[in-house]
Design brief:
One of its GO terms (cellular component) is plasma membrane. It contains 33 helices and nine strands. By secondary structure, it is of the alpha/beta class. Strand 5 and strand 6 form a beta hairpin. The N terminus is likely disordered.
Amino acid sequence: MAERVEASVTDGESTIEERDRELMREFEEGLDQPMDEEANMLKDMNKEKGLSMLMLLRLSFQSLGIVYGDLGTSPLYVFYNTFPDGIKDSEDVIGALSLIIYSLLLIPLIKYVFIVCKANDNGQGGTLAIYSLLCRHAKVNLIPNQQRSDEDLTTYSRTLVAEGSFAAKTKKWLESRHSKKRALLVIVLLGTCMMIGDGILTPAISVYKTFFLTLLSATGGIRVNNPKMSSDIVVLVSVILLIGLFSMQHYGTDKVGWLFAPIVLIWFLFIGATGIYNICKHDTSVLKAFSPKYIYLYFKRRGRDGWISLGGILLSITGTEALFADISYFPLQAIQLAFTLFVFPCLLLAYCGQAAFLVNHKEHYKDAFYASIPESVYWPMLIVATGAAIVGSQATISGTYSIIKQAVSHGCFPRVKIVHTSKKFLGQIYCPDINWILMIGCITVTASFKNQTEIGNAYGTAVVVVMLVTTLLMVLTMLLVWRRHWIFVLVFTILSLLVELSYFSAVILKVNEGGWVPLMIAAISLLVMFVWNYVTVKKYEFEVHSRVSMSWILGLGPSLGLVRVPGIGLVHSELASGVPRIFSHFITNLPAIHSVVVFVCVKNLPVYTVPEEERFLVKRIGPKTFRMFRCVARYGYKDLHRKDDDFENKLFDNLFSFVQTETMMESDSNYSPYSFNHRQESRDELIRNNNNNHDKNMVMFSSMVDYTESAIVPADSPHSAMSFSQNYRVEDEEEEEDELEFLKICKETGVVHIMGNTVVKARKGSLLPKKIAIDYVYRFLAKMCRANSAILHVPHETLLNVGQVYYV
């Protein structure tokens, strides 16, 4: 919290200090309370988790549908993609099974469930959530809009680094150069882009592999009985069902997926029981695959072909990366319990059962899953497989929405429409624009690839790149956040990279066989994200360097050299400190300004959420007679600007509370401001000087900011004392005491939102790539994305756009 400004008093000093301490205790106790309904639910959930095993089991059951749908459908197509040209030796099946067993053990179970998932940001998962953690523990954010007061948020959890430690050295190394920060962001964006590609490929590989919901593995099972079925019909039905799947998304995950958990539960029970049946019926000797020596014998026997087959083995762990992205839905213990005691054993039994069948029926390598099912349960299994595949697709689609929301909050993706689909759960969202882009991508992939092996190669490439990115980010997390010993970090890194680079080397050999698809998707997504982030950073830097000198504002006098008309003007800007350039542009071109001016900054912080009570920071700019304030609204990457939030009224509530608290503090402490001398020049002279010398004004502003603006503190804080200084004398004390009433009257008179309609252009002499990125790519994206007025739900009749051109 901002430090309270010491005020000189003549008597009653001890009483005031005691009152201050009491108010501070009340304020901090208020911050410790649950911030919203969701926070209450999470806190109650954690209590029950610790006390009730029944509650933990219930949450573990619910996690099956959301978290494990994608991973659970992998047995449909793994063996075919591992042996696309047939099985020559039964021992090859044992070797492949051994690779599957240890892949499931090392990657999903050990690495993700018990290590990576612990790197969640207050329950939020994914590469951008790890990036948020790193931004709080090191100064790696490329947009330097954070303030000291932001670190006092209850959700801004971080640990201090001890000087001289390995973590401190790592932090210093990471912060030393801008290029390292940029490289870190590119790595994070690469993983995010691959997850977007995953959102396109998962429904494609799932829906293409059923019959009536047309996943190819299921279709292969039907073809055993109906060999004349055309692949073109399968593709056509797949496209129709993809359109239906994406058309239902606007109903929300809560409504579309209400049967997720029961379907996946039945699916895992089916594949586990079928696995036991096949092991007992066909060949129990497949259990020797638990010995890792068969991995060595497999590569020795098959050589290069065995190494390339790792691309098929990789599909057995697809969905693991989505597991971490979907962790926000349930407590970590519930996810660990479900995977360790139920999902993992069922998957092992399913793969062992298929291997036992293939040892004696090598000719069924294409349709091993359905051919190994007992005839009595064939059709029920097909129906359940169809439902399970849709569950896996739905979980990935929902995860893509969350990733896009995080990217938008970090300034790495164009502003898109985000809709809440549930009043109970804030995490359930829907992005219409992204939904239709995903649908078009899925249809294109499904129609273009009429071979399941090519789709599998593309899918595997996306998955392994996400895993590699997660490993690199985990190294920094272990060093900076967890403070693990470097030896432990080294062991984790070597083991993870040994497995994942092996898979990567296998899938990279199949780039021309479908592996180019996720690379192309990632390249397009990365171009969009990088250009948007680059121009966003440059815009912010331009605004910082062109902000208005405070001496210029004070020199204009209380009237600002204009006619002050009744009402309140909300001047929107990205600056959290200083007077934005848009304001000088406004007052130099118009003869009037509102009687009350509030500079509004809406900024996103690297935290998952900002509690409602801590969202707004209010401070005063200049003397009271200027009637100028600043309000900073802070949001986390999980927070949304909902229409029913009533942003404007909440802003004014905090403004009124600030004025009321400020008046109370002044009356209690015999407030005595510092002295600050300024001379009032003519308006024309000041405007001319300001326009001709922005850099000089910037220097003046930097040296005077502590004396001209009040401390940034929450509006409800008793320590919202002011730190600005002027030597003016208030002539009308009654008017000063009635400032709150004056503000309310101005609000009733009318509120106008003043926003910049900014056009960004590349500077003259810029290199050709920069001109293309800014003048064409960014301009196109800016035209397609949502305006800030739409995101904040500003009524059109109260909006005033001020045109500006930024040369960056």
